[in-house]
Amino acid sequence: MKGNKVIPIETHERVPARQRTNPWAKVFDPFMDFCRSRSLFLLHYCTGCGAVELPPTVTSRFDVERLGIQPMVTPRQADILLVTGYVATKTLKRILLSYEQMQAPKYVIGICSCTVNGGMYWQSYATVKKLNEYLPVDVYIAGCMPRPEAVLHGLQQLMEDIKTGRANAWQDYFNRYDHYLGNQQALFGDRWQTPTDIIGEARHYGLLGEQTLGEHTALLERIKQPLEVPTAGVFSPHSETRET
Amino acid sequence: MSDVAYKSKGSVLNPLKAFSFMGRKAVTLPLDEPRDGAEYYRGFHVNDWEKCIGCRSCQKICDNQAITMVKIPSLPDDPVKGVRNERPAIDYGRCCWCGLCVDVCPTGSLALSREYIHTCRGDELDSYFILPDPNGMHDKHYGFGWAKSPDSDLVDLNRRPMPEMAPQKRLQSFDEMVHGYSGQEALLEASRCVQCGLCLESCPTHMDAPNYIRSIWEGNLEQAVRDIYQSNPFSSICGRVCTHRCETACSIGRRGTPVAIRWLKRFALDHVDHETVKRIAAEGKGGYLSGHKVAIIGAGPAGLTTAFDLAKKGHEVVVYEAMEKPGGMTRYGIPEYRLPYARLDEDVDVITSLGVKIRYNTRIGKDVTLQQLEQDYDAVLIAIGMQLGRSTRVPGSDNPHVRKAIDLLRMITRGETFPVPRRAAVIGGGNVAMDTARSVARLQMKKYGKVDITVTALEDFDHFLADPVEVEEAREEGIEVLDARGPVECVIREDGTLECLRTVKVISIFDEQGRFAPKYDDSDEQIHPADMVIEAIGQMADLSFLGEALTERLEWNRGRLKVDENGRTSEPWLWATGDVVHGPDVVHAVADGHRTANSIDTCLCGMEKVTQ
Amino acid sequence: MRPENYQAVNHPPSNEYELNFGPNHPGIEGNYAFKVKLEGDIVVAARADAGYLHRGFEKLMEGRLWMQNLAIVPRICVPDPVPMEVCYSMGVEAIGGLEVPARAQWLRVLQLELSRIAAHLFFFGGHAATVGLYTTMFWGIADRDLILDLFEEMTGGRVYHIYNIPGGVRRDLPPGFLKRLNALLDYLESRLSDYDDLFFTNRVLVHRARGVGAMDQKQALEWGVTGPNLRACGLPFDVRRDEPYLVYDQLDFEIPTYAAGDDLSRTLVRRAELEQSVRILRQVAERLPSVEGPIRAPVPNPLAWNLPEGESYTRIESSKGELAYYILSTGGAKPYRVHVRGPSQMHAVQVLEKLAIGARLEDVAQIVFSLDSCPPEVDR
Amino acid sequence: MSESKAISHRLDDVLKEIEGVRYTRQSKTRIRVDLDADALPTLLELLQGRAGYVHLSAITCVDWIDADQFELIYHVWSYEDKALVSAHIRISRDPGRYVSVYDIYTPAAFFERDIHEMFGVYFEGAPDMEKFILTEWDGPPPMRKEFDTERYVNETFAWQEYNPEWLREISAQGGGIAVKPSEGAL
To answer: CA nearest C122: which of C78, C170, C72?
Structure first.
């Protein structure tokens, strides 16, 4: 098939995100957003089968580094959480832990069908069906699984959104924390808690909305307790000891 | 195999090798231009709306339940043609691009394109639910990827061949020429069905063919019979001579030969023994008696179906039949090589076993008067067929050697003899014409050892009335079938015998208003030598028994009794159904029968004695 | 963080401590985890923790038609999906008594071996990264992508092919495919010397991998090790040769083995297997044009297909080891039970837990990768 | 019980030694053995120790809910005979306990743990019956036939509700969704 193959990246009017009193903000914020969009770290966490298309994406053939994007192994340094495909309930906990540890502004990309409506595991008792019930998603990439080209396109889309200040889903997590926490509790049970103090951070970012606090956060406050370092019980008595 | 030395080797100069890579072609692909998908790439769906018939097969095969059928009012919706105005919509939050929907698509309208990029923002997820059209997801056609191909097609396009007699053997007798499927063949044929249900919507009786076909390939024949009797007590008849609109609608028929729905019905009936069929048919018959009595005139499909339903509902039904045997036109209008009378008797036996009484050789107006019935019964149903043949009224058609097809068929059935012509010409292009021609052909073969019959039809082959298979088989049997011939004269010799039939070319049959007004081209004339001409241009009902007074009172519509959609006439106690109101067709007659039965039943249950 | 969470409670009062290895960890293959108990930097105990990729395949398959299941089986092992398809199809064929045409069998072999090469290149990349040789990763994965291109041409999908169906394969080769295949094989062979310099005979690998994570043949057999990992212990066993399926008995290839059973030999065995696969593919490319005929036995309509009663236990050699499907049909339109026995179920759990003991922390990642286990296969 | 010659004498001897063993030769490399549950450990012991069937390929569990039984199938392979013996036993579904064969075949540990998790069969003497894959799962053992995953999913999760532009337009014309996927499925 001949003809122009360039898939256009939509550009958008800059939306007024934050009320800033600083007169330089008008100049400064866009500049910051621009810089931010040019250097992103991708959390190295293969959550599902879509992950198998990431190595090609980050290595020579599709070379995502051209976009200034690089894999990063620790959540704290990472900007982008790439949820690659289906999310098992067990994995979702780890995803949330990683996500909450990431520093704002942080961005979530959901790829594959599974993150949208359960994908081909819609029948499965072990996977969650809609990612955006548990954490806000910035960009979705369709496919099962999407090719590296599609992933690149999605990342460019995200960069564009960051540049134009539209990629603000992370704020939603603070604004409507109660909603997300509620869904998490529904799935993991009432005793679900994470080490991160989201409410405190919401205050810090000035994102404490009406829906940040609610019955679910109240429940969280009731049950919260110091997290213990797991020791006993992890290694069952039968497991191997060192041969001499 | 070149083994790698299992020791560390190498030199400090090795890194210099890196320079040699500078000459090589870069492996990194350009950023701005995503590659084309491969030839068979499985990208986003495209769907040709012209071809798509909304058969829902894609939805059935989808293992992720990703496909929703969406009703689109602007599209044509015609059950008889086998077209629904539904189109598949794909949920890309479910789809896994396996392409099975493409491979089972009976029409080949659905395909996967080479387009593979779609991204959206968190709040734009609606873009994941799309209604594929020919243009592709972003209104740009990237070319077909995984489309229909003979390799990957999972639809079995070819019908299992039906074993039948060779033409020469056929002509020897009136034995049934179609043998019917063997168990294995039937199973394979049944397994072709994609359960789309288009046949169900096209069938006048709305018989749930997908259901009984499924039962057949599951090997549960009794269930199949049960499913069939839900909607049709004349199953072994319809299993043979039904006009099978279902097969016209069948989605497999779009590209291949439709599933042999009719033969499968026949198979089920043939392979379940008669007693079991009776037992199954009787299921759901309430023990109680309503005390109401219904008289039915004519033991044809329409009449007996009504009787069947009413009997099941506990009414007392008496059927008056002028002839000596039941079946009406199916017996006296359809030759035995297509419908063995033994089968017919079985079907009727099932019905009488429900307590329906049939009075044979009782002609209304002669043996019993209609007034009598009106007195004795709560409701009376006229379910007579069309026993009178129409005449072309061309010069010479009053000659005794010009016969009506329907009369001949009746005589053949009853075993009456008549002078078999050496050469015959048939006027008419319907199934009756074919039946008559082929019956006479058999007689000719018996008497003279050769067939010489010409069928001349008004219609051209594009608009032919008879079932193509019939024409085909007639030809096989040595009958000459001519299209677009209009009869102008039956030429009579001085001695009163027939010489020939003269026909001319037909230019058009109907005028602008759609009225019957054939135009001829007199220059193109043909002579068909024949010592008998058979007129097979349609029949009409003989309603003389109604009597003057009643005929006056009843409302009429173009010479036909005027009835409501359920067959009730303007007289509260009188119904009419079947051929007499809707023209000749078995399956329609059955459908009418059901409707009328319901109407009568509701009426009876609603009130005490209708006629007081 | 909530301040009260900072107080670290219950720390063991010794130099023994526990470490979570994964699931979010570069040294772990895929979404998989295990906990290691360390004394200093020596592992004294390791404990696998799976289930991050659990989807309940065996349950899902009981709810889907025989044909529909083809769409999900490849997902069971993402890096090497083809054996899954083939194995499932062969199992169904065994029950349904379907005769697979010769051409289809050759096409399956073609596909299996391509997939094997792809998986091994992937393995090299991963394993090299764990010893710090990142270039190999960049090369290996880029070269693997060329194979995916061929797959895309052949099957319409890069990673999940869904190309096999019970009775044969879904499409014939596109024109000119074998030519491009040969070109690719030439290229791969030409690359081998580069890979040797860069990786296999590289000081870094040899010194770091020799003797690490070693097991002897007796242990390997006792622990149920299969595939390349077993051959790295000197036992020349390969289902392709010892219980031949498809047309492998008509093919000429060797079963490379190494004696030491450590990381290095596991790596080198795979390198040698890559050569053998190339060799097989050459023969396939040569034979295929002469193998005419259909690519598929007539398959019943997938919507109306009841398999007869029966069971089958089908084994094939995947790039990771012995892969087996137990399929049980009670004569319905859907399987009554499908059990997937993936090689990684042994390697990634018991074997890993044993091999890690005594290793140094920095070698753990290397051991994980050298076993070339596939987490989704463990979780299913 | 097929009459075709057995795979090896050692195997023959072993099979002769056990009471009530019925075996069928399925192909030249496959033998199906049916025997009583309590005879199995002995059989495996002999197979492993004497006949050289050292490789436990898999343990499969099948839930025959109607018969109220679990079927356990032990697939063992001999590298010398190049043959696979599948030993089938039936145990009662309730309480669903059986003995571990870990001491005969080490790999059994994984399979038994897996079966315990997925079917709820407890193996006495197994090194480890802890949860492995389903650590976060507190429902019934999912592979049991009575557990209906589809119902569970529909009760637990909400589905994506799309309402795109085109659908609104069609609905405005009087059309709209005719058959939902769940209704149309076979």
So the answer is: C78
As given in the structure block, the two tokens for residue B91 are 């949920």
State how far residue B130 is from chain D, nearest Cα, in angstroms: 8
| Beta-carbon separation of A44 and C56 below 8 A | no
Q: Would you say residue D185 lies in a domain? A: no
Please give the model's pTM, rounded to 2 decimal places: 0.83
Q: Give which of C343, C308, C348, C350 is closest to C325, Cα–Cα.
A: C343
Contact A129 D139 (CB under 8 A): no
In 3-state terms, what secondary structure has residue D182? Answer: helix
**Shortest CB distance from D86 goes to which of C221, C223, C313?**
C313
Spatial neighbors of B522 by CB under 8 A, at least 6 apart, are B504
**What stretches in chain C show pLDDT beneath 50?**
1-6
Highest mean pLDDT out of B25-29, B40-44, B332-336, D1-5: B40-44
Chains B & C: contacts with CB separation below 8 Å: 125
Domain definitions of chain B by residue range: 45-130, 167-281, 287-387+560-606, 390-538
D3 occurs within a structural domain = no
Residues of A in contact with C8 (CB under 8 A): 229
- How far is residue A98's CA from residue B228's CA, in Å, rounded to a whole number? 61
> How far does the CA of residue A25 sit from the closest CA of chain B (Å)?
26
Per CATH, the homologous superfamily of domain B287-387+560-606 is FAD/NAD(P)-binding domain (3.50.50.60)
Contacts of C70 in chain B (CB under 8 A): 98, 100
Distance from the Cα of A157 to chain B's closest Cα (Å) equals 8
CA nearest to A84 within chain C = C31
What is residue C328's predicted lDDT score, i.e. its pLDDT?
Answer: 92
Provide the mean pLDDT of chain B. Answer: 84
Provide the β-strand partners of residue D123.
D98
User: pLDDT for C272-299, tens place per residue?
Assistant: 999 999 999 999 999 888 888 888 888 7
Interface list for chain D against chain A, based on CB atoms closer than 8 Å:
127-128, 130, 134-137, 139, 142, 147, 149-150, 152-153, 156-160
Number of H-type helices and E-type strands within chain B: 21, 23
Q: Quick one: which of C21, C30, C127 has its CA closest to C75? A: C30
The CATH number of domain B390-538, selected from 3.90.1150.10, 1.50.40.10, 3.50.50.60, 3.30.1340.30: 3.50.50.60
Q: Which of B436, B435, B406 is nearest to B421 (CA)?
A: B436
Rounded CA-CA distance A152/A174 in Å is 28
Q: How many CB pairs under 8 A join A and D?
A: 48
Q: Which of A34-43, A70-79, B521-530, D9-18 has the lowest mean pLDDT?
A: D9-18
SS3 C141: helix
Q: What is the pLDDT of residue A228?
A: 53
Note the CATH number of domain B45-130: 3.30.70.3270
Task: Output the furthest CA–CA distance in chain D (Å, rounded).
Answer: 79
Look at B93 and A118 and tell me if their CB atoms are within 8 Å: yes
Examine domains B287-387+560-606 and B390-538 and report if their fold is the same.
yes
State the pLDDT at residue A235: 52
Segments of chain D with pLDDT less than 70: 1-7
pLDDT at C91: 92
Percent of chain B with pLDDT over 90: 1
pLDDT digits (tens, 9 = 90+) for C305-327: 888 888 999 999 999 888 999 99
Residue type, C350: Q
Rounded CA-CA distance B326/B470 in Å is 25
Do D127 and A238 count as a contact with CB atoms less than 8 A apart?
A: yes
| A26-167: CATH class | alpha beta
Cβ–Cβ below 8 Å for A117 and B91? yes
Residue of C nearest to A56 (CA): C141
Superfamily of domain B167-281: Alpha-helical ferredoxin (1.10.1060.10)
Residue ranges and CATH numbers for the domains of chain C are 16-379 (1.10.645.10)
